[in-house]
Amino acid sequence: MSRKVVSGPDAPGRDPNAPLLRVVDIKTHFKTERGTVRAVDGVSFQLDRGRTIGIVGESGSGKSVLSRSVMGLLPGRNVIREGHVVYEGIDIVGFDSHQMRNIWGSEMSMVFQDPMTSLNPVKKIGRQITESLHEHLQMDKQEANDTALALLSSVGIPEPAARLEEYPHQLSGGMRQRVVIAIALACGPKILFADEPTTALDVTVQAQILNLLQQQQHERHMAMILVTHDLGVVAGRSHEIAVMYAGKIVEHAPTNSLFANVRMPYTEALLNSIPRLEYMSHTRLDIIGGRPPDLIRPPRGCSFAPRCRYAQPRCIEEEPPLMEGDQPGHTYRCWYPVGSPENLEAYQRNIVAGRTATGAPVEAPVTIDAGGRF
Amino acid sequence: MAGSGTDHLRAPQDALIRCENLVVEFPVGKSGLKVHAVSDISIDAKPGETLGLVGESGCGKSTTGRALMQLPRPTGGRVLYQGRDLVQLPGAELRQLRPEMQMIFQDPISSLNPRRRVFDIVAEPLRIWKRASGAELTERVNRTLENVGIDPAVADRRPHQFSGGQCQRICIARALVLEPKVIICDEPVSALDVSVQAQILNLLEDMKATYKLTLVFIAHDLAVVKNVSDRVAVMYLGKLCEVAPPDDLYANPAHPYTAALLSSIPVPDPRIRPSEENVLGGEIPSPIAPPSGCRFRTRCPRAQDMCAQVEPKMRQIGLGHYVACHFPLEATGPKPGAAQLAAKRAAVPARPVAPPRPPGTQAF
Ligand SMILES: Nc1ncnc2c1ncn2[C@@H]1O[C@H](COP(=O)(O)OP(=O)(O)OP(=O)(O)O)[C@@H](O)[C@H]1O
Ligand SMILES: Nc1ncnc2c1ncn2[C@@H]1O[C@H](COP(=O)(O)OP(=O)(O)OP(=O)(O)O)[C@@H](O)[C@H]1O
Ligand code: SF4
Ligand code: SF4
Ligand SMILES: [Mg+2]
Ligand SMILES: [Mg+2]
């Protein structure tokens, strides 16, 4: 298969030994009537071949804007973009849409939450797949058709030959998402962005689709960025997890290290607020009071301070930088990280005062575990 | 199921609300075909109990909830409220009972009138039913707002000035202000972020105690349903699969669908690997032409010939535990992931549980 060389393996400057993707301090701000929305505000990470990063955060934390920024899929107007997206050694941030066309599909592709937004309702499934095969891989008709058929069966669609002739509305939600995945995989991308790929699906179908993504990723040695609001979705399926809050990564760690050794109070609070199957019914859930900050006027210090049970005066004054944890690759933004003596002192001070430095009420928990930590 | 039957119902006099053999069908255009949304479902809730209804999209949870409220009246079956059959009740008498039965929906923002002030939204039921006026009305509205954690000082604002979680609190206040006996909560936390979801779940538990409510709690998330329910009914394609106390349902699922549902739920713990084997194939069939016999048979790993011929009926397999399946899982059989969970429970000390706090207060 021959590829155009604008960004292909032979493109000038491209270094196959460089890390697959390096995102360096990207900022994406939107100018609106109310002011500048700092949707993504200085995010960096690196993704290596065949690896999965889970990006987790609540609604509005900037997960989708981040993935769209990396893919260069942002509206042209009102957007302020800074930082670098280095793909195999080439900074693609300055690429125009013509250049990006050679990246989309064949180097990076994307699966969105709602399969209907990525499918053309008036085009047959078959044509939607073969189109990109013609465009990126210069396949002839027969070759493209055979490939489309093979793709549909590889994503678990029964009777793939018949499906090629059908329209999206003739398929169920789960089948549509399989088609979207087939299209995303068609040109053999090295990175797949999956933005809440299963949020619109039933839980039994979600399990099928997540297994499918994992299996395809494995077979193709593809890297994946799995965006979700559900920590459960990424817990068993990613090598590392980045937790986003108010446009920033507030904690980033290898998956096991994150769960075993939470450092960021936001991550801890999030984990404790999820109702779990293994809890007895009527277990009182830990809540996070308040809501995320306004991205137009974020607080000066730590953006989580108004909701944090450990908040101290310093948190209101100074924004915590990304700090290194004890475990390799574990970083977080907090002055009083969970599990540290400073954290325990801060909590005790707040319990005695009955409130945090931001004035939020704090109650003493009823049980103290053997380790002495609350 | 799944199945039909009424073995799982408690004595009629013990239930505040109870439906028997509920059927709801919708015509499909002029084709003569019907959507079999709810096909012979029986459930009941005792006073003060929370009945959880769980199942995947389209299985008929909302239709069941609405049929209990006679919105619209069901195609068949009885709905007994304090012993009276609402289905047969003349419209005027049904209307008199309306204040006692309220509903809360999934999308809090769109269920509030954007042009009205929050105070008026919550006051409206009192005005319509002429339950209070003047200072008494103000006092009742403010007290209700306080109970749900909304500062009455901001009640002159309109819904768009509140977050999704706050709008759900306002919806709850509106449902509570008439001091109803039953609230049907249809996916009340599904549209909310996890951190806010926990606030609303705790609030519903507090309100249940304060107002001595009976709740029918509908959700597709089994972990959420388990957290608030005293009894859980699992639905599939318009039928009931299994009814059990939540902790028993989780520890000993007997219906193959319940077991599959449990093992599909992603667990926020990397030590528990997602299950490959227990993932159900296929998707929910069309409710226009549901499968014969057991409606789950097209996806059931245990299905036998009999399942296509004979519809299973609800039968008791444990204390308060009922299943509609010809070949249920062994009650004591190991559950996928159970060993890992047990190990985990042993390794992790009891999670701190905050003491119950007075309704309406927020703390960390
Ligand atoms: N084109 C735009 N103009 C202005 N603001 C925008 C634009 N796109 C996104 N935003 C804002 O940027 C913030 C981050 O949005 P984003 O869609 O990335 O959130 P998310 O984490 O994906 O949330 P969700 O879980 O709801 O999908 C939000 O506050 C959103 O309102
Ligand atoms: N008014 C209606 N007219 C026709 N069909 C309907 C109507 N209301 C519901 N249905 C159908 O009845 C079935 C059950 O719907 P219902 O809304 O009760 O499911 P549900 O379990 O609440 O699902 P969800 O989790 O998506 O809310 C579905 O197939 C639905 O399409
Ligand atoms: S302790 Fe301070 S710095 Fe750390 S999360 Fe809380 S408010 Fe932010
Ligand atoms: S074993 Fe038979 S009766 Fe039981 S759930 Fe499966 S198909 Fe239905
Ligand atoms: Mg998003
Ligand atoms: Mg519903």
Description:
The complex is a heterodimer of chains A (374) and B (364). Chain A has 374 residues and is α/β, with parallel strands linked by helices. Chain A has helices spanning 63-71, 97-100, 115-118, 125-137, 141-154, 160-164, 173-185, 203-220, 231-235, 255-260, 265-273, 313-317, 341-353, and strands spanning 21-32, 35-47, 52-56, 79-87, 90-91, 108-111, 191-195, 223-228, 240-245, 248-254, 323-324, 331-332. Chain A folds into two domains: 21-238, Rossmann fold; 254-353, no CATH class. Chain A has 13 helices and twelve strands. In chain A, the strands form two sheets. An eight-stranded mixed β-sheet of chain A has the order 6-7-8-3-9-10-12-11, with helices on both faces. In chain B, 30% of the residues lie in helices and 20% in strands. The chains are: A alpha/beta (374), B alpha/beta (364). At the A-B interface, helix 7, helix 8, helix 9, helix 10 and helix 11 of A face helix 6, helix 7, helix 8, helix 9 and helix 11 of B. One adenosine-5'-triphosphate is lined by residues 26, 35, 37, 55, 57-63, 220, 287 of chain B.
How would you briefly describe this protein structure?
The complex is a heterodimer of chains A (374) and B (364). With 374 residues, chain A is α/β, with parallel strands linked by helices. Chain A is 32% helix and 20% strand.
